[in-house]
What we know:
Chain A is mainly α. In chain A, 72% of the residues lie in helices and 3% in strands.
Amino acid sequence: MKKSLKYKYRNELEVLPFLLPGFILLLIFIFYPIAKNFYMSLSDYNIFLDKMNKFVGFANYIKALKDVVLWDSFVNTALYAIVTVLPQMVLGLILAIIINTKIKGSFLFRILFYIPVITSWLIVSLIFRYIFESGDAGLINYILLKSGIIPNSISWFSNRWTANAVIWILAVWKGIGWNMIVFLAGLQGIDRSYYEAAEIDGANTVQKVRYITVPLLKPVIFFVMTNLLVGSFNVFTQVYIMTNGAPMGRTQVLLSYMYKVAFTDFNIGYSSALSVIVGLFIFILAMGQMKFMNMGYKESQL
Amino acid sequence: MIKKTLMYIVLILFSITTIIPFMYMVATAFTPDSYIIPYPPILIPAAFYLGNFIAALSSNNFLKYFMNSVYVSSISTLVAIIVSSMSAYAFARFEFRFKEKLFKLYLFSLMIPGLLNIVPQFLFINTIGLVDSYFGLILLYVGAGIAYNTFFLRGFFQSIPREIEESAIIDGASRFTIFTRIIMPLSKPALGTFAIFAFTGFWDEFSSALTIIKSVGKRTLPIAIQLFRQQHGTDWGLIFAATLIALVPIIIFFIVFQKRFIKGDFLSGSVKG
Amino acid sequence: MTLKKVLVGLFALLLVVGLTSCKADPKPVSGKVMFWHTYSEGEEKLFLEEVLPLFTAKYPDIEIESVRMPYDGLKQQIITAYTGNVAPDVMRMDIGWVAEFAKQGILEEVSAFDEFDGLKDNFFAGSLSTNFYDGKYYGLPLNTNTKVAVYSKAVLAELGLTAAPQTWDEMIALARQLKDKDERWGLVPQGFGPWGFLPYFWTLGGNITDDKYTVATGYLNSADSVAAVQQLYDYYKEGLIGPAMFGEQPSAWDGMAGGNYLWIDDGPWYFSIIGQSAIDSTVVSTIPAGKGGSVSVVGGEDLVMFNKTANKDASWIFMQFMMEDQVQKIMAKTGMIPVTKTASSSLTDVPAYVATYIKQLETAQPRTPSANWGSIEQVLSLAIESVFRGEKTPTEALNAAATEIDALLK
């Protein structure tokens, strides 16, 4: 009996030593806070005294459904995800492919493209704020004016869409290097013999990327995409530094709104409810993306 | 030939867009008394004024904080690699009940914005008496990143062809041997990349470090840099100089790990050769 | 060293010795007090090198652990530290925060201490009021400040003047002369937020609430308030207001350095941070008086004690010590204006500009003291911004804001 039980769970026993250290940390540092977060979302919570003032059920969730400001910040955040994720990935992949050809100087380019990644958001946001300054002397305005692309200088931060555009440009600019490095690591894992075989069959570069690189990189692509998606929904610092919601709170994003709710209004319950809603939303999105990429967990096992 | 030229054009175009904002930053770091960021922008400093760098380095405890950061970031990176690669391997190669569901749970946990997570995390570290210790901070860094890191490495482990392991299994190698002798060496590019990202992340981390570490002498570098930001009027030259100094270790780390781990294409090298 | 200085020194020493020996307490209070602050580097130096030794000499059994905190994310630091029972004993915090934290129930009521009544009358009423919440006091004022008008000497000279204009109309007349010149502006409120906007709003006759801070409707949307906002908006349309108001370049400090602005309103840190060059290139004056007088906004910090402190007595002694005239005067060297009447009336050895700040404080007003100030602040900013972005008329914007603020004041 005992032996058969052991036999029955032999797989679990085998994996346990590998899984357990991480799983314990996960329980403590992620699952427990999330559970607590959910608990707080059902209440009017005093975080200082670490206790519920009042249990309110799903009132915070219902409030969120009617929250107009939330909607605005949701739209901005979703647009941020839609606009920035793909360009970063495509450009990062292109650079990774070029650099992976071992072109001369590729190592230097690799370092160079990585520098934006390692510089803090605070600093790059500030620099971009100045580069997109509204007067004729703003660098971007100066270039656009001199090259005759625009007749008058643009007040980038006075309009919701131009201000958002700057936020997006910064995101792509800073993100390309990260994508490049991840894809590069993925590309290094692809056996060269696949390409050699394809070359014998007369495949061109585009075909090789389409039929070898992308399919083999699927798990990495899924990781990158999910990561960028999650990152998009956590966009904060650059918005805070560059626009702080201006004009009129129209560039506010989810996290800056949640931050305000939590730390200006001290409405911990509501802010927790927003976390849960956003988390569920991204999760559904990611699962959909998984299906769309036709690589559910099983298939990716190959 | 045309292909190569095209590649260089792309690389150079990207280089220019990457460099210009940094020229602005570097130029400001070499400018004295920049409570105001030079505007219109200067891309080439008028003179190489070193005062900001000297002021940053000689400000109280900057070098000590620097070394504290080196210590915390390196150990955290090492521990994170070990723990995360083990759980990533579990998800990439083992078959067990509820695996799929469990992994989805890992994924889900990534997606909840952790705005308030620091409070329960801190309370836990406080309960086990690790507030104000680097051990507590490292534990938090490794623990808070575990889902993400598992997810990251799992993708790479999955792309390793199974045949290599299967022959080892037939030879009777244990899972642990396969993990240390085959998976880890084969994943050098991924692990190198992982190390770079992890180190960069820990090196820059400010909020948790400030929460866990209470003694002034144990603070890390990002806290020192944040202290240069004052309530009224920040000397941006000083901050930019300090930031540039802080970039040096990450760039060194990057170069070392890229050279050692990522450049060698392992499949044609170590395995086939 | 002159004889006079030696004598003064000796006298001070005697006083310290005398005071400590007078206090022949059988059991001196002892222990450790952790003190969080956000002093700048220069201010911290002054605190550590001049103030702390005085304290240690007087209370050798109490050890002060001074911790300088970054300003960013400070509220979150308070939350975790307090929840985890590792909060500091005493903290220096923005005057706007005290009521907010008192409402959360984490601050010690200082009006419950016996010595409080003795201290109370020596504080300026405006500064003291920032510690008031729900009938009790939760902190002591520590230092105060305000903003005054800082004129560019060079721009004044260009307009043929050496002295600052004293009335609003004179100032506007000067601003109009500048208008025709490139990249020059007459005035520049620093942003739409209350801290930036209120001096202009109040000086032109606007009001936020009644005197008791209980209601905004009828005040924020009164004819006077609407007229004040309208007038500023008209100046903007006329081209008198600089781009720094919109957060664009040249920023206030940049514009002062570059001669783009006739004047800015700013705090004493403008001088203590930039230094001598700022003092030499400017003329300091009170805000030019308009319909509402010359009204600036009160800033500053209070000293609070967290109610979880293990060492109330020592913390309270430290807090009281920080109110002593000698300490207040030392910190005044960086432009931190004393909050006690005795210290500020006998202030010597401070930079000349400080006098203007003290004078401005006589008419300066505090931001609405409320536990919901953080939210009120955002409502006000949005209302003003919507006018300047041309989206709402002053009447519309202020009516809506008044209703919202009414709810927040309840």
